[in-house]
Design a protein that fits this description.
Layout lengths: L2 H19 L11 H5 L4 H9 L2 E7 L8 E2 L5 E2 L1 H13 L2 E7 L2 H9 L5 E2 L44 E5 L3 H9 L4 E5 L2 H9 L5 E2 L1
Parallel strand pairs: 1-4, 1-5, 6-7, 6-8
Antiparallel strand pairs: 2-3
Helix pairs in contact: 1-3, 1-4
């Protein structure tokens, strides 16, 4: 994974965000690939000429609507739509590899088996092995509890409640950093963490 490649991805994200904001988010409405190429430097254009197929790692455990790894093997969602725009504008093709969880995606990227992680939150202690694009989507962090859950005490430890967190996610590192005394149990996916709360194995999903 080279710096030129990630600079190219930055342009992709910004172009896609502009298209979505102006209501032209379908591939049929996108301008020809040469229009997107014009926004890139000669080095970036050269990289694209040599890399017509880009390998993308998909976290199958990610929650909709950002990423949806369907049972039929298809990849859908907001990130998928953004990448489709990039294909049309830049004349590249993305090959998707569905992996079981985010940790597996990171391992594949580290081994050079994929070139791009489709959806990732940049943590405060960003991994120096990777280069991150500008955000194209902002989501708030919320707490999910059962309906009968008593109010959460703001004591720096979530009132002693057991938190369900996802392994490898930025929010998990943030909770451990900002709330070091909080009780935590890690799960491999969003669905597993939410089910743990519903089954009384944990109290709060972050």
């Amino acid at each position: 994974m080279t710096p030129n490649f990630y600079r190219f991805l930055l342009h992709v994200g910004l172009c896609a965000l502009t298209a979505l904001a102006t209501g032209i988010a379908s591939a049929a409405d996108a301008p020809p690939a040469s229009s997107g190429m014009a926004a890139l430097s000669p080095d970036e254009q050269g990289w694209l000429q040599l890399h017509r197929f880009v390998r993308v790692g998909i976290d199958a455990s990610a929650a909709p609507p950002v990423d949806i790894a369907a049972a039929d093997g298809g990849y859908y969602g907001m990130s998928a739509d953004t990448l489709k725009l990039a294909e049309t504008r830049l004349g590249v093709r993305f090959h998707y590899t569905i992996l079981p969880n985010f940790d597996a995606v990171v391992r594949a990227a580290t081994r050079g088996e994929i070139d791009l992680i489709a959806s990732v939150v940049r943590p405060a202690d960003a991994d120096p092995r990777f280069i991150y694009t500008e955000p194209y989507l902002t989501n708030p962090t919320v707490l999910v509890t059962r309906r009968e859950q008593p109010p959460i005490v703001d004591d720096g430890a979530f009132g002693g409640y057991l938190l369900a967190l996802e392994s490898g996610q930025a929010v998990t590192a943030r909770v451990r950093r900002e709330f070091p005394t909080a009780r935590v149990r890690r799960y491999e996916s969003t669905l597993e963490a939410l089910r743990a709360v519903s089954r009384l194995e944990a109290d709060i999903y972050v």
